[in-house]
Each structure stands twice: as C-alpha cells, then as structure tokens.
Specification:
This protein is mainly alpha-helical and 210 residues long. It has helices spanning 2-14, 19-33, 45-56, 67-73, 112-124, 126-135, 140-154, 186-209, and strands at 106-110, 158-161, 165-166, 176-177. The model has no long low-confidence stretch (mean pLDDT 93).
Length: 210
C-alpha cells in the first residue's frame, strides 16, 4: 500500500495538486477500495468521484437546486443525462440510483454531448429556460450556465453531488470541504452566504421586535 501511495502522490504532483490535497486525494481513493458490495454506488464511488474531480479542476456550488430535483418534478429532463451504467467501464456490484437520494451522494451525470444540447436548448427553448430558472433561482442559474459552459470548453460532462462542500456563511474560510476548497467557484458560495446573512438579519429583527 505504501508503494501505491507513493505512485498516487507522484501522479497528483504531476497535476499540480498541493501536498495537503494530494494526501486527501489518496485518502478518498483508499476509502473507495473499502467499499463493500451492499453499499449504494451513489453514496460511495459516485460521491468519491465527485470529490476527486475537485482536486483536479474547478467545480461549482448551488444551494437547494439539482438536476435530480428537476427530473423528479419533470421527468422529461432525464433525456439530458447519462446513467452510470453507460459510463463506467465494467459492472459494479453496487446498486446505482443515478439520482440524489440524500446527503453525501452523487446525482445525475450530464454527458459531453448533452451539455452542448442543454446549453442550446436553454438559449432556444423558452420552456427549458423557464423550468431551470425557476429551480436555480436567485442568481444560481448563472452559476449553472457557467458550469455548463466550462464543461463545453473542456469537452467533458458534468456530475452533480451533494455536500462535497458545505459553506460556512459566518466564517467562509472554515467551510467544510472534502475536496480542494479553493477550486470551488466562489459565485455560488457568495450567493448562498448573502441569502443566509439576509435570513439571519430578518430573524434578529423579529427577535428584537418581540
């Protein structure tokens, strides 16, 4: 295992991952090897993959919105997603839900071609734009579009997951993060912090007036 760790840390270093996060990357891979057959794929391997991606490149945060939620409300949007069974190179024994079911869980995958199709439909289809804008509200839709545009630029897909990062609205630098905190796009985090602080202010006003 020690030799494997050296190789993994060397690999991480080649991609510019700092030593602290290289160790975290190794730890996530190690936990993945301990997954048993009865574990849900989305709660284990899927979630770990989402964490691992964050060590290598930028990822995005939105609060209370997810493509899984959109599909639950409007099943037609599943056409923009690709099931894990069509992505992973071999069959896993773990049950795969292909959706967010709880905290610390991966959700849907939007494939490379589906990213392009979705972006086109957002621009050309009023209903698609409206449905997504209703769910990704208060500026979050811009964050989602930014993520889609970055995926298009990189010629890759998007994977959603919950709780890779849990922003602390009072002390942002103390936010809980399983991946590289500094790779998280700040716009979505700031939107959440702004909303949380406004809600806190309203609560304090109500308490003061009692």
């Amino acid at each position: 295992m020690q030799e494997s760790k050296k190789e993994i840390l060397k690999f991480a270093n080649q991609y510019g991952i700092k030593p602290l996060y290289a160790e975290k990357y190794f730890d996530v891979l190690k936990v993945g090897t301990e997954t048993i057959d009865d574990n849900i794929f989305d709660k284990t391997h899927g979630f770990y993959i989402a964490i691992e991606q964050g060590f290598f490149k930028e990822y995005y945060y939105t609060r209370g919105s997810a493509f899984s939620f959109l599909i639950a409300e409007k099943p037609k949007y599943i056409k923009y997603t690709t099931p894990w069974e069509d992505i992973i190179p071999h069959t896993f024994p773990n049950k795969i839900n292909n959706t967010i079911t709880e905290n610390y869980c991966s959700g849907v995958c939007i494939g490379q071609k589906q990213v392009i199709k979705l972006l086109d439909d957002i621009e050309s289809n009023t209903q698609v734009c409206r449905d997504m804008g209703d769910l990704w509200s208060n500026g979050q839709f811009d964050v989602l579009k930014k993520a889609l545009l970055k995926a298009k630029e990189l010629e890759c897909g998007l994977l959603e997951a919950t709780d890779v990062i849990a922003p602390n609205p009072i002390k942002p630098n103390e936010s809980e993060c399983f991946s590289d905190l500094f790779h998280c796009d700040k716009e979505g985090v700031y939107l959440y912090i702004d909303t949380a602080m406004k809600q806190l202010s309203e609560i304090m006003k109500e308490d003061k007036n009692k």
